[in-house]
Design brief:
Helices cover about 45% and strands about 15% of the residues. With about 140 residues, it is α/β, with parallel strands linked by helices. The protein has one domain: Rossmann fold, CATH 3.40.50. A 6-stranded mixed sheet has the order 3-2-1-4-6-5. The radius of gyration is 14 Å and the shape is globular.
Length: about 140
């Protein structure tokens, strides 16, 4: 299963070892989940690490980044996408381009409220929602 991680998830995982985002990244290999993000999200993460805690940069470098496949951002899509948040369009388009099954984000206002729970087969959820669904399916 291919999971595309938005910047908010990368930051949350780097900033706290106790949250759903960190748990998901730590458990990905054991469950066969392929973690993907983009160079765009990586750069945004690096710029904001100092805002999420003193140890976030070290956690990003040693625990989070090595487990996430980074791809170049895609800006073209062969389908229409009406999404008012210009800064988040590259995230959605890249997730669709890499054929991710899920786009995981903590930015519910900009993603879930404006796009809903699915875009062209790409499911949108928070890490916690994703993990609860996996538990309900008996994966966890």
């Amino acid at each position: 299963m291919r999971l595309f991680l938005d910047t908010s998830v990368l930051l949350a995982a780097s900033g706290s070892a106790k949250g759903a985002a960190h748990f998901l990244i730590a458990q990905a290999a054991a469950h066969g989940w392929e973690l993907i993000s983009s160079d765009y999200c990586q750069e945004e993460t690096r710029r904001n690490l100092s805002k999420v805690g003193r140890t976030a940069a070290a956690a990003w470098k040693t625990e989070i980044a090595p487990r996430v496949l980074l791809v170049r951002v895609s800006l073209a899509l062969d389908k229409p996408l009406v999404f008012p948040k210009a800064k988040d369009r590259p995230v959605v388009i890249t997730a669709l381009a890499v054929r991710a099954d899920w786009l995981l984000t903590l930015d519910e206002t900009d993603f879930h409220v404006k796009l809903g729970r699915e875009v062209y087969g790409l499911r949108l959820a928070t890490p916690g929602e994703f993990l609860m669904e996996q538990r309900a399916q008996g994966v966890l």
